[in-house]
Design a protein that fits this description.
Elements lengths: L11 H10 L3 E3 L8 H8 L4 E3 L14 E3 L5 H13 L1 H18 L2 H13 L4
Amino acid sequence: GAGVRFTGMLPPARLAAAYRESAFLAMPSSGEGFGLVYLEAMQMGKACLAAPGAAEEIVEDGVSGVIVDPADRPALVAALVRLFTDAGWRDALGMAGRRIVQARFTPAHLAARLGASLEQGGP
């Protein structure tokens, strides 16, 4: 059914099903680090709603999702409403996100970034 579900931890198969069944990912948390959950959602072709900060390394505002200050309630509500109601836009963001993951965030890309960082003595 429609609505928001808070599931807690899910086994991998159920997690994949949850992404398939979802319209988009909304995690406008200003306390997140890198945020692998954004990559999971984007790999599944889902648009992401995220907060400014570390998430912007992954989610590109207006390209693969929406960056919204969670303290700006009117902007947050407007972004959520648009993501729920504008399926064409939402799907375009999701497909762009999938392309971004494949181009920049595969395990091989992440391993190369880690290796380069270690060679340079850290971030």
